[in-house]
UniProtKB/TrEMBL annotation:
Pfam families: Cas12f1-like_TNB (PF07282), HTH_OrfB_IS605 (PF12323), OrfB_IS605 (PF01385). InterPro entries: Cas12f1-like_TNB (IPR010095), Transposase (IPR001959), Transposase_put_HTH (IPR021027). It comes from Streptosporangium vulgare. This is RNA-guided endonuclease InsQ/TnpB family protein. Coiled coil: none annotated. The keyword DNA-binding applies. One of its GO terms (molecular function) is endonuclease activity. Residues 44-77 form the Transposase putative helix-turn-helix domain. In the C-terminal section; belongs to the transposase 35 family.
Length: 439
């Protein structure tokens, strides 16, 4: 990830998903979450359509707005207790029917129309995730735009020093100001028109890989129970949360919300204030994922992480030693969900920034095996935070001990080779020493 000062972490400038604050600096390089939680680099350019092209672009905007508003209307009719409002797949089927029926809709781009539905689905997900307000009607002339996906390599080209061109379906080649490099792998782009009538195009591309240091060093990263992530180097990383004063404010607002009358203005204001705080926390976490993944990709040749698919199944075993009270457990369950989402994003970003250098490790027994003597015993897990080997007395931070086991597994050393109380041998991955030679 390029870490220019203009880089910040914000949500997608989605189709007025709730009323988003206008943080879009002109032609800033940003990291966005687009679609379903995917993180990609986005850079924005000034689009310079001809008169005729502008008319065609406005038509795309109109179609996107029409489809979006249809989705809003469908969901407005939905009420608790009724059959669920149609989801994205169902709406796509309905769109196909509508296109068969109406020539003017059929005349437009199906990508534009489908993406409007996708944006709406994302806006609803954000709403249910309580980070955004409920998506509302879009009016002509206000934050208009549409998205094009499945962009082919030749669809963006440079024609002179300061001029580029992008091929837009049903519009053709439209010029834009080539004010800085466009990423190599443009996956999708979004065309927007602001209230002043200016057009922009924002390209979304996969981030450029971070070069490996070439030191041969392997790091193990454990998705901690006590911390967000622990490294085999002993570092403990914590994803940021709300600060003390903000937490207090959030609690106060939540109490206020419980008292506020349904449908009142006050309730709306309180809800908006809560959404703002939660969005701030989400932004901080995204930023943390960016910095952490870039840092790891830059410092280590091989980054070993637990395989989430296997990890989710065995996670309960990992926490079983603690046997906390019921309330603690419930809360842990909630946090786990949030942490799991953040972890998934961290691994995804690592794989993008360090392609071929991320190894996913079967996490079974990594938390119960002593890194010093390899003895495997559930009883060694003293507490959530402390590992105390029952065989050799080795003491360590539990998550760091696990991270070291993750690292050693990646480096080809057996974990949980002996000991154990009737537990089956863990299935270790094939050693991949050749990975250590790269870079
Ligand atoms: Zn030991």
């Amino acid at each position: 990830m390029r870490t220019s000062p203009s880089t910040c972490s914000v949500d997608a400038p989605s189709f007025r998903a709730g009323r988003k604050r206008e943080t879009v600096a002109d032609e800033g390089l940003r990291v966005l979450s687009v679609g379903f939680g995917r993180l990609i680099d986005v850079s924005r350019f000034r689009l310079q359509p001809t008169r005729a092209q502008e008319a065609a672009l406005l038509e795309h905007c109109g179609h996107a707005r029409y489809v979006w508003n249809l989705a809003v209307e469908q969901h407005a009719h939905w009420q608790p207790g009724r059959k669920t409002a149609p989801g994205f797949a169902e709406q796509c089927r309905q769109l196909t029917q509508a296109r068969a029926e109406f020539a003017w809709l059929r005349g437009g781009s199906i990508i534009v129309q489908q993406q409007a539905l996708k944006d709406f689905a994302q806006a609803m997900a954000n709403f249910f995730g309580k980070t955004h307000r409920k998506p509302t009607w879009r009016k002509r002339g206000q934050g208009e735009g549409f998205r094009i996906v499945a962009v082919k390599p030749g669809d963006v080209r440079r024609v002179s020093r300061n001029v580029g061109e992008v091929r837009i379906p049903k519009v053709g080649w439209v010029r834009f100001r080539w004010s800085r490099p466009v990423g190599d792998e443009v996956r999708s782009y979004r065309v927007t028109r602001d209230r002043a009538g200016r057009w922009h195009v924002a390209f979304a591309a996969l981030p450029e890989p971070v070069p490996a240091p070439g030191s041969g060093e392997v790091v193990g990263v454990d998705r901690g129970v006590a911390v967000s992530a622990a490294l085999s180097t002993g570092e403990l990383l914590n994803a940021p949360t709300l600060r003390g004063a903000e937490k207090t404010r959030l609690l106060r607002l939540q109490r206020k919300l419980a008292r506020a009358k349904r449908g009142s203005n006050r309730r709306g204001r309180v809800k908006a204030a809560i959404a703002k705080l939660k969005a701030r926390e989400a932004d901080r976490r995204k930023d943390w994922v960016e910095k952490t993944s870039t840092g790891l990709a830059r410092r280590f040749d091989v980054i070993a992480v637990e395989d989430l698919k296997i990890g989710n199944m065995t996670r309960s075993a990992k926490g079983a030693v603690e046997a906390p009270g019921r309330n603690v457990r419930q809360k842990a369950g909630l946090n786990r969900g949030i942490l799991a989402a953040g972890w998934g994003r961290l691994v995804e970003r690592l794989e993008q920034k360090a392609p071929g250098r991320v190894q996913k490790i079967d996490p079974r027994y990594t938390s119960q095996t002593c890194n010093a003597c390899k003895h495997l015993a559930r009883q060694s897990r003293e507490s959530q935070a402390l590992f105390l080997c029952v065989a050799c007395g080795h003491r360590a931070h539990a998550d760091v001990n696990a991270a070291k086991n993750v690292r050693d597994t990646a480096a080809g050393h057996a974990v949980a080779a002996r000991g154990g109380f009737g537990l089956p041998e863990p299935v270790n991955r094939e050693p991949q020493r050749d990975l250590l030679l790269m870079g």
